[in-house]
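Q: What does the assembly look like in three dimensions?
Context provided by user:
Components: two
Sequences:
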Amino acid sequence: MNGTGARTDAGPTSPVRLAPWFLYARSRCLPTTLAVLFATAALAAWSSARLEGLPEFDHRARVVVTFLAPLLAAAAVGTGLLTRSDTLDRTAVRPWWRRRLLHLALLTALAVALLGLAVPGHPEAFGAPAMMRNTLGTVGQAAAGAAVLGARLSWLPMTAYGSAAYLAAPRTPGGPAAVWAYLMQPGPQVAAWVTAGTVYVLGGGLYVWQGARTEA
Amino acid sequence: MSSDKGGGVTVSGLTVRHRRTLALDAVDLDFAPGVHGLLGPNGAGKTSLIRVLATVAAPTAGRVSLLGGDISNHRERTEARRRLGYLPQEFGYYPGFTVREFVAYVAWLKEMPAASVPGAVERVVERVGLADRIDAKVKSLSGGMIRRVGIAQALVNDPALLLLDEPTAGLDPEQRFEFRALLRDVGTASTVIVSTHLVEDVATACTEVTLLDAGRVAYRGTPGELSALGDERRPGQEADPLGDNPIERGYTTVLRSHRQLLPEARR
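A: Here is the predicted structure of the complete assembly.
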């Protein structure tokens, strides 16, 4: 053993590889989550542009994108909340809630910003506002799913809800559907924003408070 | 290891209930520095006790004092965690991590000074005999090696209180022998509590043994005293149904007499 004297910047003993932030990021699969978020945003931008360009469609066809892309991004965030060394983590000196809050808030901000940029123009009909609102709500649902079911299945409740809302939502926006089918609202409906925000605060709060459910 | 790190463990009236099951029933115990073996059949309450002492599970009732601090007090619990090492039965690891990275991760959980972590990690990994595998992925190691990684992470902060739940599961006889020597070494300055099914671990490594049964303390004494109870029974008889060696016979004797007394005590 040669102690710490033989460290190099790129080697396995480099200070960066053993830095707490780096270990935490890798333990929570943050590189994978970030890659999925960027890929989802790129796919959303490409598909929305392609849909708008088709002769038989206009910008309202982006409803598919503003529905699916947030689900995919939220699934990436939710499954990334898995804690494999849960028992050891609970012996940590510092309480986890601050780290969980920071983790969720940063990923939410990034997902909302990236997906918001993916659908430019026509903010009144399935543009950036709808995409950002849906991302906020679905991430909240995924966080709640992680707290209640565990991170691996965190995508399941929001996918079931989202599918039901997609099939059952009326074509006319507003009304009670702005609450129970907020994912399908074109954009400016205040009730849909309030619902998404409430879901995020409650779901995210539940996760921050108790963490992801322990999984075998 | 040289100086006594001070403080032990005291529990009084400790009760742990899992839904309708009573895992620990108003247990009173204290552990001073040294190596303490925790014996008992499955479901006796050993893991429940270790989990409460490790501060990962909250007791239903009772008081727990670790290293001079009451764990119901947030600040004192935090201080105790800094000086605590814990190996659960299943500790979970991150597949992409090397041994070095995983042990460094636990050092970070314990808030060790960043500058001391690389050296501490290398020393503890060498101590458990994995120096040549320090940069191997944990997932590539055998079951016994992974167990040793678990022991390394529990020791990385040089704990004043070391809690080990079935630490020798998966170790071969040579590794178990080396591990017992390591326990004795750590136990010279720290309080070590080892939950195990293997009475030979207790016989050779522990200074004191506590036998739990049905959530209660069935016996406390030294391994020698427990062996003596086995010697008193059926001396010289071969194929004794109570066990193959004195400490096994002592273990069985204590358990049976405790089970006879238990229904009366609960009446």
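Follow-up: The interface with chain B takes residues 1, 3-4, 7, 12-13, 15, 17-20, 23-24, 26-27, 84-94 of chain A (CB under 8 Å).
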